[in-house]
UniProtKB/TrEMBL annotation, chains A, B:
PROSITE patterns, sorted: ATP_GRASP (PS50975)
Keywords linked to the UniProt accession: ATP-binding, Ligase, Nucleotide-binding
KW Phosphoprotein (keyword) present: no
Pfam (any one): Ligase_CoA_2
PANTHER family attached to this UniProt entry: COA BINDING DOMAIN CONTAINING PROTEIN (PTHR42793), PEPTIDYL-LYSINE N-ACETYLTRANSFERASE PATZ (PTHR42793:SF1)
Organism of derivation: Amycolatopsis acidiphila
Signal peptide positions on this chain: none
Protein name, per record: Acetate--CoA ligase family protein
Coiled-coil intervals: none
InterPro entries (UniProt xref): ATP-grasp (IPR011761), ATP_grasp_subdomain_1 (IPR013815), CoA-bd (IPR003781), Ligase_CoA_dom (IPR043938), NAD(P)-bd_dom_sf (IPR036291), Succ_CoA_lig_flav_dom (IPR032875), Succinyl-CoA_synth-like (IPR016102)
Length: 710, 710
């Protein structure tokens, strides 16, 4: 983690230079290119005040202005070169720039890593040169950035209206989405601090820009569009630092469908990780995962405009019964709670509401708002004081057109704004439907301080749910740095292959994992002696070198109730092993356990994220329903408890169907210990699986295990 | 059904009069009421050309115009009275109107059925009077309607901009939502034919308006906001007629959360049905259920502008890799298929696309559209001819502002419009994000015939999925009228209470349901004789009058392997029944079955929808996961197969975990026969449950059953 931080500090200062140039050269500017035209127009139209130099070796006049034949000919200092020359000319341009002392580059030119092996070589050459010469390069194959705060917009696609300045920083792994995101943010009146299109991330990565935005005082929320998380370790460190800094990270990460994986691969050449691992990682890192561009911006806007929300209990105030019901449905999906209002709240509301109103949560103050414009605000003020809620959700639209009496409308919103600002609990405003904030709506927000309005019940309640969950997680995440590994496992040198049950079980037992007792027997008499010691019934399992799936060969005999049974089972098992020419033949004798709930606990190594812990209930739960919860290692017992709580089969652990309830603390302790052990085994470990881990009340025992080494 | 149709025809003609008045009286008009002001303003502002008479007994001037003291004083014919007088005056106004020959009424006044028992009486009085005098009354407690096609807008809440004329008919059980729906429809450029706020539905119900809209040539799609389906039989008939007429019904039905049920109850006094029954009913009736106001309008708009879509295979054409990936994720959620393009399609695309483009589905024609504006259209034309797809989805935005060269922009859209219209396969256009259609966007659509643009990938792909599923279902639904009941069951007269297993099983067996053999034994010897006949092992079950849950009292003994076991089990069971003072004591002897998959098949009577069939897998599937599929009766074997296919446990039926695959045709036949039998039993039946229904390959047998009579 220390390493990441140091590199982050370094790039933060070079990124500051990249994103805040006083002068810009457009290299390869030409009337023939839409990108050139767009970049030039964007710089002119959106407020860049420094000099813009056009460079073209073969044309005198470009975009109606005199062009220079090379960077050298400009004869003035250049802070940023925006490079759109043909692919083979990129490196020569960087060489010339480096000689001239130009430190920052955006490379729009494509034809690098995204095209295959040859392109990757070209990209590496550029990267090597840049590193040697301490250049900062954004791209290649990227459209540039929009520094809305400083009105610096070297961006290759059209920007129609000037992006509002604000506190959402946007990082995109797809430059083409920038126009849509800017349009939508503008429609929602969500202000942007900085937007960057990453391109191939040869040098500057998503994580680098995240680190920059964490340190950027203009940025409160970081919004990401991700095709892949290229450097999970760095990403995790940045996400933790963002949580510690109180800056939410909201991410639209594609690749939930297999089809999307294929698309992304073709598009960027990047590996799309297993989607459920991403889910788990984001949850643990406090990164809010959204599923649409609308949610990306609406959620970011809400988080930028709202203090951390204290809890899930929401008091809802609306002027419509129908909308109340839609909100109730939607709130339940989001895990929000709408508690009944306290008796004094109800009494006070009854005083102001018409007789035919029903006082409840969600509150419908009724269509009487048509008669009494202050009704909604007065109800809001009462609900905001209810002791049983954490925050208020107000359903209210900004004006769509210019009203007949604009001053009156402004004064009504002014009153509401004051009430909201003075409210003892945070107030989140959500509109009925997702329509653009109108010009008059903007004016209302500017002139009266009316807060951010989350667009529409569907996305607005979703954003509220995300904000509440984020606040819950952020405290946890920021306090939960990766735990140091305490226990060094007893490990024989250089293990290889697969450890079959008794070997794995003995290893687990030596390292503090409770394992059902077992004795190896290489003849009938030994098996019977062991069975006598354990008491009947017992289980006999086949043992042989490298034998994995015992059940497939009839190698597991349950419910052996007598000496005779044990002898026969031992004979049959060893006979069939001999028939297979197996080595190291014998049986494992265990007492037979009955009842309880079977869990599966596994650790596998994800190519991107490293060791991942999965827990689930055995049998159909994991095999048919794939009902497993995943967590990146390390995990605390609290992590394990939250993972167990996510399972659809959680109800079984709580004691449904006549089972004794599982002692979740005991389970969590054993599972966390498994995680700790797996982490301590480091790179040697390929996978570790306990299946089943039997739980009866507080008794937790591994009945079988399999460890695969790399 | 005949009944519904006749009443529907009648109300269609009276509704035509209600919705198309030539003159309107506002009774109870006053400057003090926002509703009065709004209704008057709406009629003035949105194009009503007939006379509007204001009636107020105590004020001479209202809304700046001379008012009449009563309906009688108007002295001119009145087609519609819009009534907003105090509650006790409503009936006198209707009396006066009836005398004057006024046939149509909107009653805005509240204080009727929604307030409790007394109000219900008042409402009944109004209803009785209206029926006797052949008056048509919309409401009470409703805001009126907006006939956008005819520009007649007697509506009590503000309508800011004139609703565009179009082909979506909207029916609302919450008047307060009308403003939001109109605003959103306007933002999406979706035209409305008629919007009605139903109020208490004393006389005119949602179903009546649906029937009217089915016959209304201006209406192509029916959009509903429902708090409850008040008359399910009529609703089902209307939905079937809509499907037969090729008019999709899209419904936002609230009440998915328990909280919402409570809210709705308080709000309308209506019963909110069990949400999963609603899901099942809508699915069978071809009604598209949506979850947000945005989806209600976006989906309706898409259906109004698109021919029935032929299938799930979509060819996607976009100018953005990032958007392609979001679309791929979203399409998978919707069950849409994006097949690979045929070799000739790929070859033709490669000819026109830049070298660095990857030719696949979804297709990203790349940012090269910045250079070549025709690229997207040319790619669209090629993809539309691909033999492996059913329709094309084009990702394209309408212009947000007025472009620098409006004529050029119009001509580009003109070319696209022609291509889309001439396309051999339907083309659905979806925009990147959900922003309002701008004024210039409207102009583009009007002047170039550019089609409907579904707003944003999130909602647009959802609407596309809904439209595809609708087209699949509509054919089925319209051909599937309720089947006549063929087999009359053998039923003893006047059954009551609960039939315990042997009684229920014998009844099922007599009526063609395969049941595991069983014999009643009232002494040990008879039990042993039966066991000998079946062969061992056998099962013994306790029998006594009215005994339901046998397992709870230890009344089920499995795996009895010998005469001795049977004797002992019989002795123990009868002893414990005697200890309970039970009557009609004995045991039931059955051969013990092993292996196979256990299903639960039940029929229960839903208060609103009548008999509902539920099927699920036994054990944790229904008990813990509540994994059951429901269908309204009657059901065909195809219905049952589709219900089985919906189960999360469907994979178990297909033979996972070493089970023999179930013969789904055999299962469906038995389950459909259960439905037929339950339906034939009519109102006498309270519930019928077979649990388990054991399935091994094509062998399907009821092992236990319970029938409860009303």
């Amino acid at each position: 983690m220390t390493n990441f931080s140091v590199s982050a500090r370094e790039s933060t200062s070079s990124l500051r230079a990249l994103f805040n140039p006083g002068s810009i050269a457009l290299v390869g500017a030409t009337d023939k290119s839409g990108w050139s035209r767009n970049t030039f127009d964007n710089l002119q139209a959106h407020g860049f005040t420094g000099p813009v130099h056009l460079v073209n070796p073969r044309t005198e006049i470009v975009h109606g202005r005199r062009a220079h034949r090379s960077l050298s000919e400009i004869g003035q200092p250049v802070d940023l070169a925006y490079v759109m020359v043909p692919t083979p000319v990129v490196l020569p341009v960087l060489r010339e720039g480096a000689r001239l002392g130009i430190r920052s580059y955006v490379v729009l030119t494509a034809g690098f890593g995204e095209t295959g092996a040859e392109g990757r070589l070209r990209e590496q050459e550029v990267l090597d040169f840049a590193r040697e010469n301490e250049l900062t390069v954004l791209g290649p194959n990227g459209n540039g950035y929009i520094n809305a705060a400083a009105r610096i917009t070297p961006y290759g696609l059209p920007i129609l209206s000037a992006p509002a300045r604000g506190s959402v920083g946007v990082v995109l792994q797809s430059g083409a989405l920038a126009s849509s995101i800017l349009a939508f943010a503008q429609a929602r009146n969500v202000g942007i601090s900085l937007l960057t299109a990453m391109g191939n991330e040869a040098m500057i990565s998503v994580t680098d820009v995240m680190e920059y935005l964490i340190d950027d005082p203009a940025t409160k929320v970081i919004a990401l569009f991700l095709e892949s998380v290229r450097r999970p370790g760095e990403f995790a460190a940045a996400a933790r630092r963002a949580a510690a800094a109180g800056k939410p990270v909201v991410a639209l990460k594609i690749g939930a469908s297999q089809l999307a994986s294929r698309t992304a691969q073709a598009h960027t050449g990047a590996l799309v990780g297993d989607d459920s691992v991403i889910d788990a990682a984001f949850r643990q890192l406090g990164v809010i995962r959204v599923r649409s561009l609308e949610d990306l911006i609406i959620t970011s806007g809400l988080l930028a405009g709202t203090p951390p929300l204290p809890g899930r209990r929401v008091g809802v105030v609306t002027p419509s019964g129908g909308a109340s019901e839609i909100i109730a449905d939607r709130a339940e999906q989001e895990g929000l709670v709408l508690p009944e209002y306290a008796p004094e709240t109800v009494a006070r509301l009854k005083e102001i509401l018409p007789e035919f109103a029903t006082v409840q949560n969600p509150l419908d103050v009724t269509g009487y708002v048509v008669v009494d414009r202050t009704l909604l605000s007065r109800a809001l003020a009462i609900v905001a004081e209810d002791p049983g809620i954490d925050e208020v959700m107000l359903l209210s639209d900004l004006p769509r057109g210019v009203p007949a009496d604009p001053e009156l409308a402004l004064s009504v919103y002014h009153t509401s704004s004051r009430l909201i600002q003075e409210s003892p609990r945070p107030v989140v405003v959500v509109s009925n439907v997702l329509v653009d904030v109108s010009d008059f709506g903007r004016k209302v927000q500017e002139e009266t301080g009316y807060p951010y309005v989350a667009g529409g019940i569907e996305h607005g309640v979703g954003a509220l749910g995300a904000a509440v969950r984020w606040a819950e997680q952020a405290r946890e995440v920021s306090s939960r740095a990766p735990a140091p590994v305490t226990a060094v496992p007893e490990l024989p040198a250089g293990p290889t292959g697969t450890w079959v049950e008794h070997e794995a079980a003995a290893f687990l037992a030596r390292n503090g994992i409770p394992v059902v007792p077992a004795e190896l027997a290489d003849d009938e008499d030994t098996a019977v002696e062991a069975a006598d010691r354990f008491g009947y019934p017992v289980v006999l399992k086949a043992v042989a070198d490298g034998l994995g799936h015992k059940s497939d060969i009839g190698g597991v005999r349950l419910g052996l109730a007598s000496e005779q049974d044990v002898r026969q089972a031992h004979r049959e098992i060893t006979a069939s092993l001999r028939a297979m020419d197996a080595k190291g033949i014998g049986t494992l004798v265990q007492p037979q356990r009955s009842g309880g709930v079977e869990l599966l606990v596994g650790v596998v190594r994800d190519a991107a994220w490293g060791p991942v812990l999965a827990v689930g209930l055995g049998g159909i739960w994991v095999e048919v329903l794939r009902d497993a919860a995943q967590r990146l290692l390390p995990v605390s017992t609290a992590d394990v408890r939250s993972a167990l709580g996510e399972l659809r089969g959680a109800v079984v652990l709580r004691g449904s169907r006549g089972h004794e309830p599982a002692d979740l603390d005991s389970v969590a302790e054993v599972v966390a210990r498994v995680g700790e052990l797996a982490l301590a085994l480091g790179d040697q470990l390929e996978s570790l699986e306990i299946n089943p881990l039997l739980v009866r009340g507080s008794r937790v025992e591994a009945l079988d295990a399999l460890i695969t080494w790399r």
